[in-house]
Amino acid sequence: MAEKLFSSEDKERIVAAVKQAELNTSGEIRVHIENHCPEELMDRAAYLFEKLKMHKTELRNGVLFYLAVKDHQFAILGDAGINAVVEDDFWECIKEKMTEYFKQSDFAGGLECGILRAGEKLKSHFPYQSDDVNELPDEISFGK
């Protein structure tokens, strides 16, 4: 099971990164990890995005970090509100940085780096508001 690939410290680091990133932005960040991607990568990410109800955020500013560890695949999927305002290579730049960590089998470090970068970059378009409500859980969701 994918959950066993991460130590409790790794999981805590990833959740802490989500919480830290969400202090910069009203955007909502989720992480889903599984061993294998059972379909085309972006189709799977889109399916999970909907299953995790990420499209239900008020500003349509959810971000999913999806990782299929044993298949060596990952995707970052942003909702329509984000994709309408960020530059075309926004997600690709974050993925490149994460890949540097993944090549060293540092999956927690790669996720942490990507999550924090996303939060930092999103704050100009979706700044944190004092009345911000955490619309989605910060915990990691795991598949098979």
UniProtKB/TrEMBL annotation:
It comes from the Bacteria. Residues 3-119 form the TPM domain. It holds the Pfam family TPM_phosphatase. PANTHER family: BLL7265 PROTEIN, UPF0603 PROTEIN YGCG. This is TLP18.3/Psb32/MOLO-1 phosphatase superfamily protein. It comes from Natronoflexus pectinivorans.
